[in-house]
Amino acid sequence: MGEKRQEKIWTGQFWIAVINNFFLFVVHYALLTSLPLYILYELNGNEGQAGLAMAIFMLSAIIVRPFAGKIIEVFGKRKTLLISELFFCLSSVLYIFIDSLPLLLALRLFHGIWFSILTTVLIAIVNDIIPESRKGAGIGYFMMSNNLAIVFGPLIVLTGLQWFPYKVLFTSLATVVFMSFLFIFSLKVSEYPSSLSTVKRNRLTWEDFIESKAIPIAIVGALTAFSYAGVLSFISVFAETRDVFEYVSLFFLVFAIAMMIVRPFTGQLYDTKGPNSVIYPSFFFFTVGLFMLSNIHTVPTLLVAGALIGIGYGSIFPCLQALAIQSTHKHRSGHATSTFFTLFDGGLAIGAILLGVVSAQWGYTIMYIFCGVIVILTALIYWRLVSVKKSDTYNKTEEHLSLKQSS
Description:
Order of helices and strands: HHHHHHHHHHHHHH
Number of strands: 0
CATH superfamily of the largest domain: MFS general substrate transporter like domains
Distance between the termini: 21 Å
Radius of gyration: 21 Å
Structural class: mainly alpha
Strand content: under 5%
């Protein structure tokens, strides 16, 4: 056991995957921030059209996500990675030439398809790179690149637009993502053949799209995402009503710093003490952060809430994703990932819609209290659906399968 704990996570291959993922999500969040402004001020659109451009991207990603696992199984991880990232890059370039709203909406639909496939296959590849005994820490560090991109993507955009026009911004983002694309050619990809029960069939079945073993964890992920949608979608508007709008960027910065500080400890706890040792405390911090956010009147309160949510949500998400991947066989990791993100993305989308209704009817304070209550219920559902015994056997099952295949 001592030797396993010493297995390295930060290999050259892992660095390539993390850097690539970071740049992909920087571009993603930069576009999420800049396109509504571009639609309003350059294309003479309205707020509804700006929202539609964001929604259509998510819709295409959610629709395609269940098919991603089957695509990976048929074409293999390497081909899927290269093709999906190439089209993701081409989509990023096309923003430079878009000068009408219909074309932009069509591009968002196209871009969402490749974003969905690319992010699914990249996580499946990273899962193979991370040593079995370090899954909790490894997935956590990898997902930290997503959370850092949440900070740096909008920061780059909001700073850059003060000095440069939109076309220069889009050109810069396309250049960054193409540079990232060149790095993945040096990424070594492990392919795991399907078991005999999944070889060529004439008819598609449920298993071609969904990994049943990952569904309980994906349900917990969807409910967690539902509550986080209240932060992601409405924190700026709520902060403006409390006269702390100019400090929202600091909120996300504190979120990222708090997450990075605890990540080494949470990853070690996951791998040595099991997922429950991280997930239950994280639910607690997430809940307290949401309750505190519901009653912000000062900047310190806003920032403390950001730190608590960063510790809570920032630790729950990678743990649940690691559990989803570990719930099944290696050759089904793509299906498990697509199942998890299908429900997770659905939770974000439904949360943004329903919480918008709640905030309109009862105000943001009630909305964030409601989100906190949902997190408490989610912790109970996690306890019911993902028992201690079951979660602790995921690593053992994988090790047993590996030994059986090698013998």
